[in-house]
Each structure stands twice: as structure tokens, then as C-alpha cells.
Amino acid sequence: SKPIVAIVGRPNVGKSTFFNYLAGKRISIVEDTPGVTRDRIYTEVEWRNRKFTLIDTGGIEPYSEDKIMKQMKNQAEIAIETADVIIFMVDMKDGLTASDREVATMLRKSKKPIILAVNKVDKVGELPAEVYEFYNLGMDNLMPISSIHGLGVGDLLDEVFKYF
Ligand code: GDP
Ligand code: MG
């Protein structure tokens, strides 16, 4: 069967935007309101003649006691268990947050291969200094991307395929 890749991260970092970019259509809901992806959503992705299944998840907000957030956290945990590779998404515009650190801790426990996607790096050229802050998460596989423009997405997928 095809390898499974899950996109995980706190709300509003751009997971659904990335998912929709690869799906080639708006399957997953993109909202400025955090946490609108309530279910796991699947799409088949083909890249350089190879296929995988991509799962979008609702955002994980580790500190939240809110019921919907808890449900979404469960959904994300199931997706993490199912996945062969995890794309851990963070948001350059917000910088590194406490929630990002919590998600990182949770992901490390899964022992799955993790690629750290620093999203919202919308300009080509030299990497903005803000990107380097995310090396504090202790993950060596860092890829800057812009899900809106599709920048860096090909390079990210090449990294993903290294684990299949
Ligand atoms: P999710 O909660 O992680 O699924 O995030 P969404 O995909 O719903 O996106 C949250 C917000 O970030 C929306 O307003 C998106 O338009 C915006 N966004 C997503 N990707 C990018 C990006 O690459 N650059 C910029 N500037 N904004 C983005
Ligand atoms: Mg979403």
C-alpha cells in the first residue's frame, strides 16, 4: 500500500493550505479562525511518478482545555500513529511558540520520521533570519515553504520521499 504522510501542527500555521495546494483543489477548509479542520482529511498525491496518501489534521493546541480542541488532538494522534512520515508545520510569521514546543515533544515520542516545514516564507531568495529560530526545536530536517505560493514544496516532498 501507499505510504502515509500526516501534516501536524498547532492551528493556523497553514496545514490545510498546504494540503489543498497538493490536492490541487480546496478540499480542506482554510480559515483565519484557528482549528477549523475538524476531521482527518485524505488525498492521494503524486510527485515525480510516486504516490502517497496525505492526511490533513485539525490543529493541536496542547494547552487548550476546550472540548473541540481535545477532539482534534485525538484526531491528530491517530493520524500520527498511522503515518510513515510526519510533516510538522510551524509559522514563520508567528515565530516559535510554546505550543510548537509542546507539539514537538509529542511528535518526538512517536519515533516517526519528522520533517519540520517552516511555512509562510513567501519570498524567494535569502532565508529570513526568523527561520533559524526554529532550529531550537532540535529537528535537523528543516524546510522553508510557502503553502500559498507553493514555494519550496517540491524540495520538501523530495525530503519526504527519502523516508519511504
Ligand atoms: P491550519 O489551521 O494550519 O489548517 O491553517 P490554514 O491552512 O487554515 O491557514 C491559516 C491562515 O494562514 C489562512 O489565513 C491562510 O491563508 C494563511 N496561510 C497559509 N499558508 C500561508 C503561506 O504560505 N503564506 C501566508 N502569508 N499565509 C498563509
Ligand atoms: Mg486546517
TrEMBL record:
Coiled coil: none annotated. Signal peptide: none annotated. It comes from the Bacteria. GTP 1 binds at residues 9-16, 56-60, 119-122. Residues 3-164 form the EngA-type G domain. Associates with the 50S ribosomal subunit. GTPase that plays an essential role in the late steps of ribosome biogenesis. Belongs to the TRAFAC class TrmE-Era-EngA-EngB-Septin-like GTPase superfamily. EngA (Der) GTPase family. This is GTPase Der. The gene is der.
